[in-house]
Amino acid sequence: MKKNYEIRLSKGAVKDLKKMETTLRDFIYGQIYEIAEDPYKNEKLSGSFKELRSQHSKFRGVEYRVIYYIDEEGRLIIIALVGTRENIYKELARRL
Asked: pTM of the entire structure?
């Protein structure tokens, strides 16, 4: 049986999630747990973000992204950013 990865949220991701309504936050947590089960199923980002991956999902017709990094050695997934598709990559560049 394959061991799941441990999940850690960056300070920015915690702030992102706190701003969300409860039902959306619960939906995003579900997406994060899916990532922990199979973190390599999502595509790698490109350019300066090539070490990161992005989980795409839709909630009430709005596109959301969970941007994360996989630390294979520590069996750890670090959630860097959570938000709507709109401007998420600009925000990612600002935070990193």
From this structure: 0.90
